[in-house]
Amino acid sequence: MRLEYAAIAIVIIAAAAWLAYDNFMPREFTVSVKLADSQGLPINATVQLYADDRLAAEAQVNGEANVKISAKKGAALMARASADGFIPTRAGFSGAAVKITMQRETARTQKTDFVIATGYANLEKKYGAALANEIKTKILELASAAQQYDGLQTQAIFLDGNYSTVGEAVNALQPAYLLIVGGPAIVPFGEAETPLKGASGLGFVAMQDPTVPTDNDYGVFPAAEYDCNECYPDVAVGRLPDGNDTKSESRILVDLLNYAIAAHEQKPVLDSMASLVSKDSYGGHLHYSLYSQLGNRVVDAPPNYFRAMQASDGREAERLAIMLASLGPASALFLSVHGSSPPWPQVFSASDG
After folding, report:
1. pTM above 0.85?
2. Cβ atoms within 10 Å of 229's Cβ, excluding its own
3. Backbone phi and psi for residue 27, each to the nearest 5 degrees, phi listed first
4. What is the 3-state secondary structure (H, E, C) of the chain?
5. Which of 49-63, 270-284, 289-303 has the lowest mean pLDDT?
6. Within 13 Å, how many C-alpha atoms sit on residue 14's CB side?
7. What distance in Å separates the CA atoms of residue 119 and residue 114, rounded to the nearest whole number?
8. 110 or 274: which leads in pLDDT
9. CATH of region 2-102, choose from 2.60.40.2190, 1.10.150.120, 2.40.50.180, 3.30.950.10
10. CB–CB of 186/172 below 8 Å?
11. CATH 2.60.40.2190-classified regions of the chain
12. Which of 76, 291, 303, 347 could form a disulfide linkage to 343, CB 3.0–4.6 angstroms apart?
């Protein structure tokens, strides 16, 4: 009888192990991808396949192709396609095939590549008329430099002029790039519901911090109907921040704009990249696209001596500077870190990559 019980136990353990493997270990399979326009004609586009919001594969697809991905059983699958002349399009799928129909971009009489936007009245409130006017002059110089040196059709937008909001300007001009000048006192952030709301075991965190400040809303065209508009904007959005103060004499925006102008006038060499990411931000996307082209070096952990330097002793900024110096000699640096203040809980834990 004991041998029978032992045999039954082995069978149960083996079955449990198989179920665990089948449900939790990634599986490699092939997805049939088909791309067409609204007339049914094939499209040549870059396709990215995501599993549970993580990039699983990327390929160039001309009408139809099979793309291999690795994903856990039951993972939420999504495909994103982008091509010149078409609105970026996404589609969820559950099987081994996905078909994406892409809409052509609406023709515009005058193309605008780059929009630089700020709230001039708020600049005056924060900095006074003289410094606000200097910032305005630098914005116009940056617009001129982007057009002269990079051939970008650029418009500088000062709100309460032709447009009352950044979103209104973006929707009208539909640029490829948007730069917001100033922090939330100048141009407010949008608010998105925290993605942690539905995450297992993180409900308490979501209750404490239910929304996430974001600029992505400014980069979504109104005609786009996406399941998650804030996830993948149509416009590349950046911001030159100046802190949260409502009154200031700081010249940080003038300095940042000068750096941006110089970068257009004399192109920086971009031939290598290093990344420092917190453990919960690490993902396969760090080895695709531009990351791959530049040989992205993901810093696995900061030097060991940082582990003994995590006390709140007022030297956090000094230690952070030393850490950033250790990421050299890369010409581009990608940071995806977060945490409390002082920043050591995440910043000094680095990636698990």
Report:
1. no
2. 17
3. -120, 145
4. CHHHHHHHHHHHHHHHHHHHHHHHCCEEEEEEEEEEECCCCECEEEEEEEECCEEEEEEEEECEEEEEEEECCCCCEEEEEECCCECCEEEEECCCEEEEEECECCCCCCCCCEEEEECHHHHHHHHCHHHHHHHHHHHHHHHHHHHHHHCCCEEEEECCCCCCCHHHHHHHHCCCEEEEECCCCCCCCEEEECHHHHCCCCHHHHHHCCEEEECHHHHCCCCCCCCCCCCCCCCEEEEECCCCCCCCCCCHHHHHHHHHHHHHHCCCCCCCEEEEECHHHCCHHHHCHHHHHCCCEECCCCCHHHHHCCCCCCCHHHHHHHHHHHCCCCCEEEEECCCCCCCHHHHCCCCCC
5. 289-303
6. 6
7. 17
8. 274
9. 2.60.40.2190
10. no
11. 2-102
12. 347
Tokens of 99: 């078909």
Residue pLDDT, tens place only, 240-252: 999 888 899 999 9
For the segment 246-259, the average pLDDT, to the nearest whole number, is 93
**Which pLDDT value is given to residue 132?**
95
Question: Which tens digit of pLDDT belongs to each residue from 296-336?
Answer: 777 644 444 454 445 556 666 676 676 767 676 788 877 77
Q: CATH says 114-265 is which class? A: alpha beta
Q: Which residue has the tokens 């809303």?
A: 217
Burial class from Cβ neighbours inside 10 Å (0-12, 13-18, 19+) for residue 29 reads exposed
- As annotated, the residues of the chain forming the CATH 3.40.50.10390 domain(s) are 114-265
